[in-house]
């Protein structure tokens, strides 16, 4: 059974850092494309970053140079290191993968950046 569990969110001041984790079970993170999305109040969910099985990465323009997506194969976990956080980064962050024609989502973790 595929399961994704995010953690690491919280309240941080602008300019600060947070590291989000996405613990996966029921599949192997290393062989799947993994993604981080976020959704701010009143906004559509947007792609933040993705990491493919061959370690190619894609970032939203708004986070390039500040966020880093990575994985730890031994822990079957994906991460999002977020530096130089801005108030506009405030959102619920979700991890995602697509397996057998179906999207899987975690429950989300709240990130709040105060100015």
Q: What do these coordinates show?
A:
It is a single chain. The model has no long low-confidence stretch (mean pLDDT 97). A hairpin with a 6-residue loop joins β4 (34-39) and β5 (46-51). Strands 2, 4, 5, 6, 9, 10 and 11 form a seven-stranded mixed beta sheet that branches. A four-stranded antiparallel beta sheet has the order 1-3-8-7, with no helix packed on it. It is mostly beta strands and 115 residues long. Helices cover 0% and strands 55% of the residues. It has strands spanning 3-7, 10-13, 18-25, 34-39, 46-51, 57-59, 67-72, 77-82, 91-99, 102-105, 109-114.
Largest sheet: 7 strands, mixed
Number of helices, where a helix is a run of at least 4 consecutive DSSP H or I residues: 0
**Mean pLDDT, all residues:** 97
Topology order in helix (H) and strand (E) letters: EEEEEEEEEEE
Task: Give the class from helix and strand content and strand pairing.
Answer: mainly beta
Q: Show unreliable segments.
A: none
E-strand count: 11
Helical fraction equals: under 10%
Instruction: Categorize the overall geometry.
Output: globular
Radius of gyration: 13 Å
Q: Termini, distance in Å?
A: 40 Å
Strand content: over 45%
């Amino acid at each position: 059974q595929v399961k994704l569990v995010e953690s690491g969110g919280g309240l941080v001041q602008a300019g600060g850092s947070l590291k989000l984790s996405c613990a996966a079970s029921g599949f192997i993170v290393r062989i799947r494309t993994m993604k981080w999305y976020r959704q701010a109040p009143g906004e559509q969910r947007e792609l933040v970053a993705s990491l493919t099985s061959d370690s190619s990465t894609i970032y939203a323009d708004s986070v390039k140079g500040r966020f880093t997506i990575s994985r730890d194969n031994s822990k079957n976990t994906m991460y999002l290191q977020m530096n130089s956080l801005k108030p506009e980064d405030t959102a619920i962050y979700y991890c995602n993968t697509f397996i057998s024609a179906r999207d899987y989502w975690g429950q989300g973790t709240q990130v709040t950046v105060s100015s």
